[in-house]
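Tokens for chain A. Residues wanted.
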């Protein structure tokens, strides 16, 4: 595990600032360690979202001929010596310790603060750090189950407490959000003026709902998501396709997103996620010179046929970029010999996805049209934000909680599901069941942060994950601890 002490480096906007150089009497500077906490979360390794989501039946590994252990993971064949497991462990724990260090540094500013305004600001900033810490612990525990909880910069003391069960971690996250909520802005992230797009009370509520969903505490899920819905602060972005492009960044739908920018300049500094793994390794972009991708993270044929069977148009066009080889693969099944005209290897923005060996389809939700690139920037997806939690997921969690027996204060399960369906022109349902909600989540949230995979293992729907030659069992739910960490830390290898 990567360990940072409280007196190590704190991230500033585009550089490093040693904590020993800080003057804690200058309250205006307490935003710097907060920015460091955000920087830790935003600077995701490209491997993080891939590994989190690849085991679901909505997405396949792609990347044929490269990273065979990643492809094996998609088949539930795990090698704890695979570099990606260890890298993601280090990524998230490194982030957690940086966030904790940021929170403790803000506390140092608070210790010297005099004005009530500065004291309140310190409480808010520390609460934001708790939300970021909750998010990182959440992702870690979903992957590995029992993990260490890191709540202070005394890493030795935290490790000495041993690993906590997944249930204990999820309860810790829920409680941590309760600690943070009273000090957070009662606003959408896009309403914030101090840290634009930063987390708010509703981000914390969303993370609390996710943690309680993992605990199968459906009444808590209904209560928390109901509070978000009843706030009337959020609504679905009108255009599902544009939601995942630059037009949809910091929209009223987004409760948490990782923010990036190339600052609208053709060269120089930029903060960008590496979207290469999601892109085609052979395309003809509208903007000549726009870089291709690597050909990983492929929407599954099962998902595509599921969407065709439902009569989906908008969500299928948005979620999947087709190649001629992929279209031929679909039509080779007599039941899909004739496809709707919208199934094409030309995207609505005119980019052409040609055949390439590593995959037959690409993720449309991680695609930025070449015409949206800042002139002079050629990297695939340059400057595009990465949405983490959005209002559609809140509505569907609320609906599921009600179908699981919880009581709700924000309308019926039918109303919640139909709000999501109406945006993309799907007909209304009545008498919604849990299976209906899972189907809706499959259609709405595919390729997003492993939502589908973790839903299926929570509900023990192993048959859904046993597809295209795979066989999934309860033993496949969690990744093994990385061997590099077993060699360093007191982890149970069973």
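Reply:
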């Amino acid at each position: 595990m990567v360990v940072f002490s409280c007196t190590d480096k704190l991230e500033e906007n585009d550089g490093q600032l040693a904590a020993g150089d800080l003057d804690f009497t200058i309250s205006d500077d307490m935003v710097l360690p907060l920015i460091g906490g955000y920087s830790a979360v935003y600077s995701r390794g490209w491997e993080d979202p891939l590994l989190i989501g690849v085991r679901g039946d909505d997405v396949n590994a792609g990347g044929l001929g490269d990273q065979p252990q990643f492809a094996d993971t998609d088949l539930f064949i795990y090698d704890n010596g695979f570099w990606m497991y260890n890298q993601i462990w280090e990524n998230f724990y490194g982030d957690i310790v940086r966030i904790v260090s940021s929170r403790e540094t803000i506390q140092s500013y608070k210790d010297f603060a005099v004005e009530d305004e500065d004291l309140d600001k310190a409480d808010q900033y520390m609460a934001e750090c708790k939300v970021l810490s909750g998010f990182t612990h959440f992702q870690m525990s979903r992957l590995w189950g029992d993990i260490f909880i890191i709540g202070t910069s005394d890493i030795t003391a935290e490790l000495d407490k041993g690993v906590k069960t997944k249930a204990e971690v999820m309860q810790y996250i829920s409680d941590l959000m309760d600690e943070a909520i009273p000090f957070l802005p009662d606003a959408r992230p896009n309403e914030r003026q101090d840290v634009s797009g930063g987390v708010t009370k509703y981000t914390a509520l969303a993370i609390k709902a996710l943690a309680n969903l993992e605990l199968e505490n459906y009444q808590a899920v209904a209560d928390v998501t109901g509070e978000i819905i009843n706030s009337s602060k959020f609504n679905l972005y009108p255009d599902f396709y544009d939601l995942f492009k630059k037009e949809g960044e910091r929209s009223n739908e987004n409760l948490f997103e990782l923010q990036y920018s190339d600052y609208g300049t053709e060269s120089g500094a930029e903060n960008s996620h590496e979207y290469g793994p999601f892109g085609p390794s052979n395309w003809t972009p509208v903007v000549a010179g726009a870089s291709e991708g690597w050909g990983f993270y492929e929407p599954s044929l099962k998902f595509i046929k599921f969407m065709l069977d439902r009569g989906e148009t908008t969500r299928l066009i948005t979620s999947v970029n087709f190649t001629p080889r992929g279209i031929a693969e679909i039509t080779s099944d007599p039941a899909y010999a004739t496809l709707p005209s919208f199934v094409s290897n030309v995207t609505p923005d005119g980019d052409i996805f040609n055949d390439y060996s590593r995959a037959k389809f690409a993720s449309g939700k991680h695609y930025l049209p070449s015409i949206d690139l800042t002139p002079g920037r050629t990297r695939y997806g340059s400057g595009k934000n990465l949405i983490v939690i959005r209002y559609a997921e809140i509505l569907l969690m609320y609906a599921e909680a009600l179908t699981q027996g919880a009581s709700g204060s924000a309308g019926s399960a039918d109303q919640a599901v139909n709000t999501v369906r109406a945006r993309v022109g799907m007909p209304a349902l009545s008498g919604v069941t849990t299976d209906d909600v899972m189907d809706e989540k499959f259609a709405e949230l595919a390729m997003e942060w492993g939502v589908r995979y973790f839903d299926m293992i929570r509900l023990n729907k192993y048959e859904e994950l046993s597809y295209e030659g795979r066989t999934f069992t309860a033993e496949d739910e969690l990744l093994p601890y990385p061997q590099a960490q077993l060699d360093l830390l007191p982890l149970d290898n069973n």
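DSSP finds 19 helices and ten strands in the chain. The beta strands are 9-11, 16-18, 59-62, 254-258, 283-284, 296-299, 320-322, 352-353, 361-363, 386-390.
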